Structures are given as structure tokens and as C-alpha cells.
Automatic annotation (TrEMBL):
Gene3D superfamilies: Aspartate Aminotransferase, domain 1, Type I PLP-dependent aspartate aminotransferase-like (Major domain). GO terms for molecular function: transaminase activity. This is DegT/DnrJ/EryC1/StrS family aminotransferase. Pfam families: DegT_DnrJ_EryC1. Keywords: Aminotransferase, Transferase.
């Protein structure tokens, strides 16, 4: 799509660093330069103000990636694109059947009402909960990782959704300040939200998480 729109050598494309490297890789394959902008801490998608600050005379496009089933603020981002005359591309997660989404929302509502010690995801803007991503408060990665290990030891299958932001990967390393991206990479943890989870499994997950209180000291 970038090549078809004439984006290439000498152009810059604003992309998120919170996520996989495939978007930045696509920009490089088109011959352009990926420029990383910070995310909104609620949606984990590009923040319009951060994108605005990253735009230069060489910016040709912005690639917006919708994360975890909660869409980006396309109203603000679309207005920014029109104001700067930029190509706006969206990478959306796959469409799923309504009943499957409804069941995941029911699971998420159960967890929202019972989890303590972690910050539950925002339920606004039609969240489809392709991933149920919580925040583990504390002093950064040792606390989140220790929390994850302890929860797994209780039989709860959880994972870190983004281990290394793209702007910290050697092939894309940039000297840029992205505080919300860094904080999200250090604090986020995806808990299971499969539609087929049983009430017993949900109770075990809540019990395991709440018993930890949300903060563990690093293990030495």
C-alpha cells in the first residue's frame, strides 16, 4: 500500500514502537524511514499529539495499528492527517463473529469486577478483547515479570504482550523519548480471556492475581 501510494526513498512514515517490528519493516521495504511516535496509555495505539510532534516536512504517511481489540482514536488522528495532507493507513486486527466477541466481553466483565492489584483495561470504544491486557503497578519490569512468574506457578497462562519496543531493537534503534511506550512495555501483562474459559478457571485466575497484591520485589 505504501509503494502503491508513491511512498518511498526520502519519505518518513510515522509508526508505533509498541508492538511487533512488521510495520517498521514494511516501511523500510518501501524505501522510506520509520519514525516512531508515542502511544496513548489507555488504548496502546498511536497518540495524536505525539504523532503531530513527530511530523516533519518529509512525513508522507502514518500507519495506525489497533491494539488488543481497542481501536485508536481515528477522529483525532484522521483530523491530523487531513491537516498535514498525510496518507493514513490502518492495520486492524481480524474480524470475529459477534457471539465470540460477546463471550469474551462477558469474561472481561467478570475479571473487571473482581481483579485487584492490577489495572484492568479500559472497556470503552467497543473493546473486543482480542487480548485482555492489564497493568502491573510497580517500579518497572522486575515487578511485572515476577508477578507473571508467580501467576504462572498457580497455573494461569499469561504472557508479556510486548517485550521490547521496536525503537529499542538493534536494527531500528532510535534515540527518541517514548515514555508511554516504555512504561507499557514494562508494566503490561496479557491474561487469558478465551471465550471457553470455565468459571473455575476464572476464579483461579482472580485468586492468583489478587493474592499477589500487584507488586512483587525482584527475585535475586
Amino acid at each position: 500500500m505504501l509503494k502503491a501510494a508513491g511512498v518511498g526513498l526520502g519519505d518518513e512514515v510515522v509508526v508505533p514502537a509498541y508492538g511487533n517490528a512488521d510495520v517498521a519493516e514494511a516501511v523500510v521495504l518501501a524505501g522510506a524511514l520509520p519514525v516512531f511516535a508515542d502511544i496513548d496509555p489507555t488504548t496502546y495505539c498511536l497518540d495524536a499529539a505525539a504523532v503531530d510532534a513527530a511530523v516533519t516536512s518529509r512525513t508522507a504517511a502514518v500507519i495506525v495499528v489497533h491494539r488488543f481489540g481497542l481501536p485508536a482514536d481515528m477522529g483525532a488522528l484522521g483530523e491530523l492527517g487531513r491537516r498535514h495532507g498525510l496518507l493514513m493507513l490502518e492495520q486492524a486486527e481480524g474480524n470475529e463473529a459477534y457471539d465470540q466477541v460477546a463471550r469474551r466481553r462477558a469474561v472481561a466483565a467478570y475479571l473487571d469486577a473482581r481483579l485487584t492489584g492490577v489495572r484492568t483495561p479500559d472497556a470503552g470504544r467497543g473493546h473486543t478483547y482480542q487480548q485482555y491486557v492489564v497493568r502491573v503497578p510497580g517500579n518497572g519490569r522486575p515487578d511485572r515479570d515476577a508477578f507473571a512468574r508467580a501467576v504462572r506457578a498457580k497455573g494461569v497462562d499469561c504472557r508479556v504482550p510486548v517485550k521490547t519496543p521496536v525503537h529499542r531493537m538493534p536494527q531500528y534503534r532510535r534515540d527518541v523519548m517514548l515514555p508511554e511506550t516504555e512504561r507499557a512495555a514494562d508494566e503490561t501483562l496479557a491474561l487469558p480471556v478465551r471465550a471457553e474459559l470455565t468459571r473455575r478457571e476464572l476464579q483461579r485466575m482472580v485468586s492468583a492475581c489478587n493474592a499477589l497484591g500487584g507488586l512483587l520485589q525482584p527475585a535475586f
